[in-house]
């Protein structure tokens, strides 16, 4: 279970305070796919960052697979990120001087129980491009590599911040399909931030944020394969 109770996060810059998360509470089951929707500035990235231990809440409780992350000090948070969490961003964040294989190797090296690099590259359809550099790849291929780098750690939770934001519809749907396949094969809990309302159709759970608060959460009884989502 992934559980948030009365989570508060306020950013201060100078005199100005921004309430990024205001008393957010919800539960999501393990091994599910969730989509997080909401307007710009509604707190989606902040939510992902506090769940992933990149940032810490000011108040409230965050529990991920029986671990009370919100009580962790820096060292425990680093361990937690290493062992349980994979991050995927819109901008891929690959190391430009390393090949595809080497980028994935980096993910493998920081894990205690990594999957095999070639297995993961094969799974994301990038094994034949193992020796290419990021600038020799399309956007979709770069995102596949970034997914492989996150996946090789064998994370329990994959946190994806606008993973298809820089991709066209066809490539984006293939990436979403890959996330669905990973969820099924490895039982990974997947959270996907998006502005694309249509993604709700492929998720088990849909979390809607509004002005730093939870607007609604609902269970989708019949998620569709990614290729059937309406691209908005
Ligand atoms: N490091 C920070 N310092 C100051 N304010 C911040 C910081 N990070 C986020 N905020 C503010 O917190 C609020 C929530 O931001 P957040 O990035 O979580 O929203 P979002 O829903 O992900 O937006 P977007 O869809 O535009 O990415 C915004 O008002 C934002 O300006």
From TrEMBL:
Q: What keyword terms does UniProt attach to this protein?
A: ATP-binding, Nucleotide-binding, Transport
Keyword Lyase applies: no
Which SMART domains does its entry note?
AAA (SM00382)
User: Matching Gene3D superfamilies, A to Z?
Assistant: P-loop containing nucleotide triphosphate hydrolases (3.40.50.300)
User: Ranges for the ABC transporter domain?
Assistant: 2-231
Presence of keyword Transport: yes
User: What's an example of a GO molecular-function annotation for this chain?
Assistant: ATP hydrolysis activity
Q: Which GO terms describe its cellular component?
A: membrane protein complex
Q: Which InterPro entries match?
A: AAA+_ATPase, ABC_transporter-like_ATP-bd, MacB-like_ATP-bd, P-loop_NTPase
This protein is called: Putative ABC transport system ATP-binding protein
Q: Which species does the entry assign this protein to?
A: Falsibacillus pallidus
